[in-house]
Amino acid sequence: MEFVSISIDKEKDHDKWKKMIVDKDLGGMQLYADNDWKSQFIEDYLIKGIPRFILIDPKGNIVSSNAPRPSDKKLTELLDELKI
User: Fold this and answer.
1) 4-55, pLDDT tens digit by residue?
2) Spatial CA neighbour of 45 closest among 74, 66, 17
3) What are φ and ψ of residue 63, in 5° steps?
4) How many angstroms separate the CA atoms of 12 and 8, rounded?
């Protein structure tokens, strides 16, 4: 299982974003979407607010395009059902 974070920060804040990853020792895979709110990913998934959690199975299929937060007990239940 892998957690992937995609930042949509503005280009001018890119260095601040990279520093925050180090300062907060963020795990998982950290990605940066170009074009902030107009990035293709944001538009394709109709994301209107952040944070947004999307659960994708090991085969690349979207299980939930609006999944519970990682700290939510419901996510654990969902993962248990999927046997991920």
Assistant:
1) 899 999 999 999 999 999 999 998 899 999 899 999 989 998 999 999 999 9
2) 66
3) -85, -40
4) 11
DSSP one-letter string for 27-74: -SEEEE-TTGGGSHHHHHTT--SSS---EE-TTS-EEETTPPPTTSHH
| Angle, vertex CA 31, rays to CA 30 and CA 32, nearest 5 | 135
Q: Which residues are paired to 7 by β-bridges?
A: 32
**Interatomic CA distance for residues 77 and 69, integer angstroms:** 12
Backbone angles phi and psi of 38, in degrees to 5: -105, 10
Distance CA 49, CA 37 (A): 10
Q: Report the chain's terminal Cα–Cα distance, integer Å.
A: 7
Residue 77 CA: distances (Å) to CA of 11, 61, 70, 72, 82: 37, 18, 11, 9, 9
